[in-house]
Amino acid sequence: MSANGLIVDARHVSRVFAMRAGPVTAVRDVTLQIHGGDHIAVRGPSGCGKSTLLHMLGCVEPQTSGSLLFDGQDVSQLSDARRSLLRLKQIGFVFQRFFLLPMLTARENVELPMSEAGVPKPARQKRAVELLEYVGLAARADHRPSQLSGGEMQRVAIARALANGPRLLLADEPTGELDEATGAQIASLLDRVNQAGTALVIVTHDPALADRAGRVLMMRDGQIESERVR
Ligand code: ADP
Ligand code: MG
Predict the structure, then answer these.
(1) Could you tell me if 127 and 119 are in contact, meaning their C-beta atoms sit under 8 angstroms apart?
(2) Could you tell me the pLDDT band of residue 3, with boundaries at 50, 70 and 90?
């Protein structure tokens, strides 16, 4: 597959939650292609379905209808084990609240996905240190999350998301908990990740982050209302 090949091909995907008060349609008939190297921002009001869409693109949640191919494979046809492996190797996730494991050091947090992927200990320790250098945190490798600032925690989370060399990085409001200056550092780090060839989809309310994207999708009521291509 070439660097600019199709990674995700989502066609008419919807996601309906069955609630006691009746069905809630979080994502409605979205068609979206993500290619290698894409830099996509997703904006829209709270509750419009951004996180739900991201979870489907990341093969975490199944669509209720429509089809989703990742690297040409129909994700709904994969076994749970194959789908987990796909997520582990091809997709990185970054969240607003970082979700680092508090008992582990920065390096151990970054090692975790490699450990799950069966990377031998010496190799994963070496790569974790390299990734922490890449995000500018080599000096914090042995710190626990409680000993790091919010921006540092997010940089560790980005290093962790890159651990297995994913083709696609999904970020859900990655600067939502950070002040403006720290958010700008995270934004330029994500730019670097994209320039190194990883496709990005970033859900954000932060105009500074969205303005860097090549494609900006505006969502409303579960649908992509418009797309601006730069
Ligand atoms: P956003 O990320 O844009 O704020 P979400 O994707 O989180 O929006 O949610 C979209 C809609 O789907 C909302 O109405 C929300 O209440 C509903 N929703 C999201 N997740 C669930 C769930 N697990 N169960 C029921 N309803 C959900
Ligand atoms: Mg959300």
Answers:
(1) yes
(2) low
pTM of the model: 0.96
Bridge partners of 137, per DSSP, are none
What region, left, alpha or beta, does residue 179 occupy, with left being phi > 0 and alpha being psi -120 to 50 degrees? beta
Which residues are bridge partners to 223 per DSSP? 220
Q: Which of 52, 55, 173, 217 to mutate to test the pocket of ligand 1 (most atoms within 8 A of CB)?
A: 52
Distances (CA, A) of 162 to 128, 174, 220: 10, 15, 30
Q: Which of 11, 8, 21 is CA-nearest to residue 63?
A: 11
Q: Position 110: which residue type?
A: V
- Distance (angstroms) between ligand 1 centre and the Cα of 81 equals 26
CA–centroid distance for 10 within its chain: 16
Tokens of 118: 């069966």
Indicate which residue's Cα is closest to atom 7 of ligand 1: 51
Please calculate the CA angle 75-80-81 and round it to the nearest 5 degrees: 110
**133-187 residue pLDDT tens:** 999 999 999 999 999 999 999 999 999 999 999 999 999 999 999 999 999 999 9
Which residue's CA is minimally distant from atom 26 of ligand 1? Answer: 17
Q: pLDDT tens digits for 57-71?
A: 999 999 999 999 999
d(CA 200, CA 184): 16
Instruction: Give the burial string for 25-57 (b: 16+ CB within 10 Å, else e).
Output: bbbbebebebbbbbbbbbbbeeebbbbbbbbbb
